Each structure stands twice: as structure tokens, then as C-alpha cells.
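User: quick one, sequence for these C-alpha cells?
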């Protein structure tokens, strides 16, 4: 879909004054279509790449037939059409991505150290660095981020009763070393491991702290430890999701009339 806006178009939702503000500031003329990225987006190429590299990566993995390039970042369309159906596992893998195997693989290069650590920390003025220094030297932004607190993937299944067809797969800390656990949207209560814990005090009953602890160790020698850990995580997740699917197919769950009964079940 073309990303340029036409007044009174039904293709996009946008603020009622989006055209007027652009016209008032001399950024758009009425006889033109409005390119939101060029009118309202950042001019700094580093800021543009901060977002578009992630878009490019999704297109590279899910729409490779398009052959999109990073250099075309200011002209990406509103959306890409996937070359194949996208599964939950595909989405989960993308959230865990550091551009591995691509031209901007963050596990490669001197910045990743001797053990391929893909984490890149944010730049801030200080230690004698000027704003110019920061503009000239910056790191790429990965999809899986070290500063993540939680992430989630929402799933719906119309083959199930409405009481249970909404599910959330939720993980904590950096997705690349976390386990996404399944939760039902209708639940009134959740396991302690999901809702307990503080960022300011270690708690060994909290999934957040379990994932954080694991992540800290993995990134000490990433290229050696991560390949060992990921099969264990994948196996754990697969068993949970298979159990969830099996549970959903049981007659009692399909025939439960009320939300409270679903929770009890």
C-alpha cells in the first residue's frame, strides 16, 4: 500500500489537523499527497535507522522476494506482504533477533567483543563526548533489547469459545534469553511468577529475575552459551504450547459456559 496520504482518504486513520499543520509550516502543499515520513519524520539518518533497520529485518525474513535494501529506508511502504503464512514461532524469533546472519549482524565485529555479545548500549553526552561525537559514532538498534522489561505476543483463535480464545504469550527481560509463557486474557488471577518482583530487589520466584539472571550469564560468552541455551528454551516453549493446544481441545473446555468456570478448569 502506498504510504502517502490524500485528504479524506479511508485508507488511513490520522489526526484531523495533520494536513493543516503541515501546510501552516510550509511542509506540504494542498495539490500534493502528504508523505508522513518526510513531513513529520526525523531528518537525522541515525534516528531514521533506529527504526527502519527493524522494519528492513522483518521484510528480509518474511518478504525476501521483494529484495528490500537498507539504503531505501526513507521509501519503505506502509506494509509488506509476507511471502508465506507467519506463525507464532516466526514472530517470537523476530523479537529475539540481533540481525544474525545479515550484513549488520550484531554478534560480529569489534564492538561485540571476543565472545560475540550483540548488546549495544545507548549513547548519552558525557565523558567528554560532544553532541557531534554522538552523531558521528552510534550503534545500531537491535530488535531484542537488553533493557526490555517484558514483551508479549497476542493470539486469538476463533475456533475456541470467546471466553478462552484470547491468549497472550508473555516473556520478561531480553527476548533472546527469555521464555514466553501462555496466559489466558480472561484470567482473573495469574501465577505469582508472572506478577511478582521488582526491578530494584532480586526475587528468585519472579520470571523477570530468572530471565535477567540467565541473560547476564549468556552475554558473558554469547557465541558459546546462547547456542546451548536456545534449544532448551525452544523445547520448554514447545511443550507448554502443545499442552495449551491439547487442553483447548478437551470437551470440558469447549463447553464451559462462563468465564469463572474456565479459570477453575
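Assistant:
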Amino acid at each position: 500500500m502506498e504510504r502517502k496520504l490524500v485528504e479524506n482518504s479511508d485508507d488511513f486513520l490520522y489526526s484531523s489537523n495533520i494536513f493543516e499543520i503541515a501546510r501552516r509550516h510550509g511542509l506540504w502543499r494542498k495539490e500534493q499527497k502528504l508523505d508522513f515520513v518526510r513531513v513529520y519524520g526525523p531528518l537525522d539518518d541515525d534516528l531514521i535507522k533506529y527504526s527502519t533497520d527493524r522494519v528492513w529485518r522483518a521484510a528480509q525474513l518474511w518478504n525476501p522476494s521483494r529484495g528490500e535494501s537498507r539504503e531505501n529506508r526513507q521509501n519503505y511502504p506502509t506494509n509488506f506482504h509476507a511471502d508465506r503464512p507467519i506463525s507464532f514461532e516466526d514472530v517470537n524469533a523476530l523479537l529475539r533477533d540481533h540481525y544474525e546472519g545479515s550484513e549488520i549482524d550484531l554478534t560480529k565485529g569489534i564492538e561485540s567483543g571476543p565472545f560475540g555479545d550483540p548488546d549495544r548500549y545507548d549513547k548519552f553526552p558525557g565523558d567528554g563526548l560532544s553532541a557531534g561525537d554522538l552523531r558521528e559514532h552510534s550503534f545500531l538498534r537491535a530488535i531484542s533489547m537488553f533493557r526490555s522489561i517484558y514483551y508479549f505476543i497476542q493470539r486469538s483463535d476463533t475456533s475456541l469459545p470467546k471466553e478462552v480464545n484470547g491468549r497472550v504469550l508473555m516473556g520478561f527481560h531480553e527476548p533472546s534469553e527469555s521464555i514466553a509463557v501462555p496466559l489466558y486474557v480472561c484470567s482473573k488471577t495469574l501465577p505469582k511468577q508472572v506478577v511478582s518482583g521488582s526491578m530494584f530487589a532480586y526475587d528468585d520466584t519472579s520470571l523477570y529475575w530468572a530471565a535477567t539472571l540467565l541473560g547476564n550469564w549468556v552475554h558473558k560468552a554469547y557465541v558459546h552459551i546462547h547456542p546451548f541455551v536456545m534449544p532448551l528454551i525452544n523445547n520448554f516453549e514447545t511443550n507448554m504450547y502443545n499442552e495449551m493446544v491439547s487442553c483447548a481441545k478437551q470437551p470440558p473446555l469447549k463447553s464451559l459456559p462462563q468465564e469463572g468456570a474456565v479459570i477453575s478448569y
